[in-house]
Amino acid sequence: MTPERQVATVSTAREEVTLARQGGIAASNLTELIDAHLHMPFPFLSNRHVSEAAAGVDVWLRSCGLTDEVGVAAMIAFTRPAELASYNSPTAELDVLQIVANQIAYQFIFDDRAEEIGRRSPDRLLPMLCESIGILRDDASPSTRLGAALADLHRQVRQRCTPAQAARWAWKSREYVHGLLYEAVAQATPLPPRMGLSTSIRSLTAGVEPFFPLAEAAQPCELSSEELHHPVVQRLSRLSADAAVWIPDLFSSVKEQRAGGVINLALAHQRAHRCSLPVAVMLAIQQINGTIREFERLYEEIEPELSPAGIGYVDGMAGWIRGCYYWSRTVPRYVDAALTPALL
């Protein structure tokens, strides 16, 4: 992006913040600013089994011994994984919803642990990540509580999914594990990564795409290879994962900024344009809105060609965009966004 284009884009964001104030849109904090400008075409929905899934998560984490570890129970209370699963998978039956909720809980624990260890030194992550890869790729025996939880989660997936779906789940989960090492390296580098590299790492650490085989498993039948590998469906997968993880980046930007995080879309815009956090959030919203609108357009184009199972599969992708937005707005983990003024 040229310097002139950067100035114009930042200027546009400043103008939008000003218009939000003058046009009767109350944007006194970052959460209200996001609500006022984020394009969200997908309505709020919640799964009727959410309470059962929340109880199931607690039981599963206790059975794996993870809630015995310091801070885990409090973190789960602050992140509400079953709530996020409910918003992302509002029509799923309890068996699929429970796996989704368990996996979200596991990934929050795993991600926080990787961040804590990786900040000290990326090489300290290697035993933890290699254990996960061994479990996912070779069905290796775990040696830690986290590893045992992953092995059990892998078992749940294989019991509920077809072999092909379970293989896709494992493949995408390995990609997520590798991404955490890239993030740790970026965090340890003296100079933060540029925008393109930051978003590439974020796409790996999002951890959204491993859930798409579960969305497929919730359908009456397996998708055909032609549908699953159709270039438009593949593009929809990428757009969904990006939008779904970038939306929480808006709400978590204050938390990440205070913690010294660098792999965050809003913070990447702030570094690139040397602007205030509200302006950076506006720039990130523009990027997210473009991504969501492309998703809408492509889905409309491909829908007549899809089977009912294919439509349900893509609806699962849309569910992640919707779910991450409604969850991020109210989850205690991101409460700082509602306490931060939307001032230039």
Automatic annotation (TrEMBL):
<protein>
    <recommendedName>
        <fullName>Sesquiterpene cyclase</fullName>
    </recommendedName>
</protein>
<dbReference type="Pfam" id="PF19086">
    <property type="entry name" value="Terpene_syn_C_2"/>
</dbReference>
<dbReference type="InterPro" id="IPR008949">
    <property type="entry name" value="Isoprenoid_synthase_dom_sf"/>
</dbReference>
<dbReference type="InterPro" id="IPR048138">
    <property type="entry name" value="Amorph_synthase"/>
</dbReference>
